[in-house]
Amino acid sequence: MSNTRPKITRARIIRGKGGAPIRTILEHNYVRPTGSTISVKCGAAFPWEARDEARLMWISEADFRVHSYLPQPFRMEFDLSDGSMLTYIPDLERITEDVEIVEVKRTAGEATRDPGYGFKLHLAKTVCALRGWKFRIVSAEDEIRQEPLLSNVRRIRYHRLTQLQSLDYLRLGEAAAPKAGRLTWGEAVAVLGGRDDPWDVNGFAKLCALIVRRHVYVDLALPLVPTRLVMLAEYMRASED
Q1: How would you write the chain as a 3-class SS string?
Q2: Domain residue limits, the chain
């Protein structure tokens, strides 16, 4: 950034009441598509202000690495050395092994087109670094609108509300234990469906619901075919220790 830019003298982070998003789409007169999505992983309904933001929430819902997420998580206020104040609201906060603060843009270069906005992103990145958080600008073209990733998460989130019983967890655990927690997608579907059928519709829905609940890991960047390997969460965590 230019050396002529003012410096931060003080920064504040203001969160929404009760941990809710700091603002909702009702606060703005948007003409672009907006909506809301129900998160099983987070136990809440969240607003979205752009389709790519919604898609990143879908990905976060299915991504084993993401423990929880929150759109419009807080407002940053920057007091600057020239007496002015700037504010910034990130698109998404994701809790993984770290805290990720995410800004979603259509393309990698979009964030740098407006110098003033780029300066705000620079300030946000600086404050995040001081708090030990990661700050990421996510390009929708490069990281969200990718196949088979996007199709996979659409299919998985469609079944996120599928009801599960204790027997489902027990059956899957018993089947995976002799194989160090690993099964193929088809094997897991057959076990959960209770019909020895790798294409069983109910088994497929239950497996998707278990992925959302972080009980099963699958690589979302690869096609969800019967031979795709999946892994139970407890074995994933044990391998990381």
Answers
A1: CCCCCCCEEEEEEEECHHHCCCCCHHHCCCCCCCEEEEECCCCEEEEECCHHHHHHHHHHHHCCCCCEEEECCEEEEEEECCCCEEEECCCEEEECCCEEEEEEECCCCHHHCCHHHHHHHHHHHHHHHHHCCEEEEEEHHHHHCCCCHHHHHHHHHHCCCCCCCHHHHHHHHHHHHHHCCEEEHHHHHHHHHCCCCCCCHHHHHHHHHHHHCCCEECCCCCCCCCCCEEEEHHHHHHHHC
A2: 8-144, 162-240
Is the entire prediction scored with pTM above 0.85? Answer: yes
CATH 3.20.20.70 corresponds to the domain 8-144: no
Question: What would the pLDDT profile of 153-176 be if each residue is shown by its tens digit?
Answer: 999 999 999 999 999 999 999 999
